[in-house]
Amino acid sequence: MAPPVLFALLLSLVNISLGSIFTAPEQVSAFKKYDFIIVGAGTAGSVIAARLSEDPSVNVLVIEAGVADNGTDSELIYIPLLAGEGVGTLFDWNYTTTAQSGFNGRALDFPRGFVMGGSSAINSMIYSRGPSDEYDRLANLSGDSGWSWDNLEGYRLMNEKHSSPWNNRSNVGEYDPSVHGYGPLLTGLTPTVFETDNRVIANTAAYPEQYPFTLDLNSGNGLGFGWLETSVGNGSRSTSASAYLHPALNSRSNLDVLLHTQATRLVSTSGKVTFREVQVAQSATATIYSFKATKEVILCAGSVGTPQLLMLSGIGPTEQLKSVGITSVLNLADVGNNMQDQSILALQWEVNGTSLSSFLSDATALNESLEQWAINKTGPAAGNMMVNTIGFLRLPSNSTLLVAGDPAAGPNSAHIQLSFLETFYPNPGQVSPTTGSWMSATVVVQSPTSRGSLNLTSSSAFVHPTINPAYYTTAFDIGAAIEGVKMLRDFLATPVWDGYIIAPYSAVAALQTDAEIETYIRTFANTLDHPTSTAKISKITDSFGVVGPELLVKGATGLRIVDASILPAAVAGFPQAEVYIIAERAAALIKSTWSLS
Ligand SMILES: Cc1cc2nc3c(=O)[nH]c(=O)nc-3n(C[C@H](O)[C@H](O)[C@H](O)COP(=O)(O)OP(=O)(O)OC[C@H]3O[C@@H](n4cnc5c(N)ncnc54)[C@H](O)[C@@H]3O)c2cc1C
Ligand SMILES: *[C@@H]1O[C@H](CO)[C@@H](O)[C@H](O)[C@H]1NC(C)=O
Ligand SMILES: *[C@@H]1O[C@H](CO)[C@@H](O)[C@H](O)[C@H]1NC(C)=O
Ligand SMILES: *[C@@H]1O[C@H](CO)[C@@H](O)[C@H](O)[C@H]1NC(C)=O
Ligand SMILES: *[C@@H]1O[C@H](CO)[C@@H](O)[C@H](O)[C@H]1NC(C)=O
Ligand SMILES: *[C@@H]1O[C@H](CO)[C@@H](O)[C@H](O)[C@H]1NC(C)=O
Ligand SMILES: *[C@@H]1O[C@H](CO)[C@@H](O)[C@H](O)[C@H]1NC(C)=O
Ligand SMILES: *[C@@H]1O[C@H](CO)[C@@H](O)[C@H](O)[C@H]1NC(C)=O
Ligand SMILES: *[C@@H]1O[C@H](CO)[C@@H](O)[C@H](O)[C@H]1NC(C)=O
Ligand SMILES: *[C@@H]1O[C@H](CO)[C@@H](O)[C@H](O)[C@H]1NC(C)=O
Ligand SMILES: *[C@@H]1O[C@H](CO)[C@@H](O)[C@H](O)[C@H]1NC(C)=O
């Protein structure tokens, strides 16, 4: 039996050419010096880890609370048809919101990825950068023109690559190759076009003024209707783990990942506000270990994990921390404050024809498709089967909702998003009919003004924080949602839908007055799983906010945040694309700070 020290040494020799995956903190060699410690192997964390480890002179450790993405049940992550099925499983943190006053007191399940790849491994795979306004707003609010749409082009191209669907269906006229890049994340369009999609596109041809067709919604033009890009390639979901983390681990010795281990506290080292030490533990009762970074600690724990960890470390609103017994180290009032999220409501119609519903309710066909995927990564399970077409619309410019100001990211940003599915998509609490063919369309207020918060209830890292997105607590949000439902009904009332739409689902048919629509929204709307802004960015000179333009925590040394929590507001597009792009630039900023290659 070798003594522990020798054992650790042998371990490090065995792994001489590859990065290691550790599953307990005691496996990490006490002799290895890490330049960077990244908390969270999620969407942003995997990008940072892969980019920083490109320089062979630095050592990088990633600490991830969750599980491996390539072990038990990995097909739940990687089969495109099963997108959504990872929610509520071993890959989910299983958070819930507080009772939401805007939702008649309902508390919602609030999924977040608990796995390598983070939420990119359990999300709905939509890859939509949003309008150029979104990034120009980020540049504006941070005072750093490097975040503008134009200046981020290189980082967009570094992130993703458009790929063909598994069946090589031609995508000519459905996207613009010139706005896509050469990065590791694979994106693509649906292998299977449904009648619902055809009618959406036909409506844009019939009414181009009212419903313009946009060739590529990833081009910076974030208004209009078009084909939806998803993070799928080669018949599989592409995640930040499959695209960034695994390739780096499999080719470099200077990157290690520690799984099943939660960062519980940041410790200030030399000087009061220098945070280069991370405490970790595997459970509330397990031994606490500690790791030190010689250069930086980078928090990529997401919109829930990042503010929680900051507050556990005494970084946040002093009075609130005191109330849970945490000594303040750095008073930053906006940690956990300003939380925004978007919300989704589905409406359904019976349609004439064989829709995707028939396939999804056929157990044998489904089973065969999963077998085909297992063998060849082809067939109906290998493509995005859900949303293929989407529209981003403005409220009319004379809308009374805009009198008090326009909350959109800019004049070319949507207030309302509509998306289309050729199946019955139930809201929480609704049961899909067992007969008939169905389509659904969803309404999202893209530019909500409600802001909630995330609070600690305990000084233990293993007690969930309270999550209060405060949905529909402003007049704008509920008013815009009601308008969105009407805009959707107008879109579906054109002759283009004749012979296809038979009738609205009974609950949808019953909605006549604004009051009835409002009640329906408050009864059935769900989270769209897009929380942001709990550690928001601001200018160096601003007294509010949590990070400055380089994503360094204000008033601290050695500590940066790179994830969706830094976003100033709910995103005008979809968050994962923006998180990837921000992470690419953040990695370049870190490399530049430390003169890395
Ligand atoms: C069900 C669902 C559907 C979605 N659909 C879409 C979509 O279709 N399109 C889209 O663009 N966006 C979608 N999103 C949102 C998008 O996926 C997220 O906004 C984005 O992935 C967030 O990236 P992130 O890096 O901020 O956090 P994450 O990717 O969530 O990464 C955070 C990581 O940190 C880890 N972690 C947290 N706390 C700790 C700790 N204390 N110690 C160690 N590790 C920790 C977590 O386990 C996780 O791996 C969806 C999200 C969900 C949950
Ligand atoms: C989430 O819930 C599922 C189902 O109960 C469970 O298997 C999983 O372990 C839970 N996740 C966590 C992080 O506890
Ligand atoms: C930021 O926006 C304000 C208000 O729209 C504008 O006046 C200002 O020029 C913008 N600043 C930058 C740097 O874009
Ligand atoms: C798609 O094209 C690739 C590359 O040309 C080829 O290998 C593959 O067999 C094609 N697949 C189908 C289903 O035609
Ligand atoms: C798709 O998979 C094939 C076979 O595994 C591989 O050779 C190819 O490089 C992959 N394509 C992309 C774009 O990753
Ligand atoms: C999981 O991923 C790691 C890192 O890429 C790799 O070393 C390991 O072999 C993979 N495990 C399986 C079962 O594929
Ligand atoms: C929760 O956090 C918000 C924002 O920091 C704060 O306004 C609110 O008072 C907090 N609530 C509690 C119960 O501490
Ligand atoms: C799916 O296929 C497997 C393997 O052929 C079989 O064992 C199983 O019973 C099938 N399930 C259904 C629902 O058809
Ligand atoms: C898998 O691909 C091979 C070669 O193209 C083909 O012969 C076989 O029928 C496919 N299997 C399934 C289940 O689709
Ligand atoms: C906005 O303008 C349209 C068309 O000009 C008109 O029909 C509508 O009544 C106006 N709405 C309001 C709130 O003024
Ligand atoms: C259904 O579609 C067929 C043609 O595809 C058409 O003949 C029929 O009238 C349609 N039925 C309804 C109720 O629209």
UniProtKB/TrEMBL annotation:
One Pfam entry for this protein is GMC_oxred_N
**What keywords are annotated for this sequence in UniProt?**
FAD, Flavoprotein, Signal
Query: What is an example of a GO molecular function annotated in this UniProt entry?
Result: flavin adenine dinucleotide binding
Needed co-factor(s): FAD
Q: Where does FAD bind?
A: V115, P575, Q576
Domain Glucose-methanol-choline oxidoreductase N-terminal, which positions? 302-316
Signal peptide (UniProt feature, chain positions): 1-19
Q: Does the keyword Transferase apply?
A: no
Q: Does the keyword Mitochondrion apply?
A: no
**Cited InterPro entries:** FAD/NAD-bd_sf, GMC_OxRdtase, GMC_OxRdtase_N, GMC_OxRtase_C
Give the family this protein belongs to, as stated in its UniProt record.
Belongs to the GMC oxidoreductase family.
- PANTHER family under this entry? CHOLINE DEHYDROGENASE, MITOCHONDRIAL (PTHR11552:SF147), GLUCOSE-METHANOL-CHOLINE GMC OXIDOREDUCTASE (PTHR11552)
Q: What is the name of this protein?
A: Aryl-alcohol oxidase-like protein
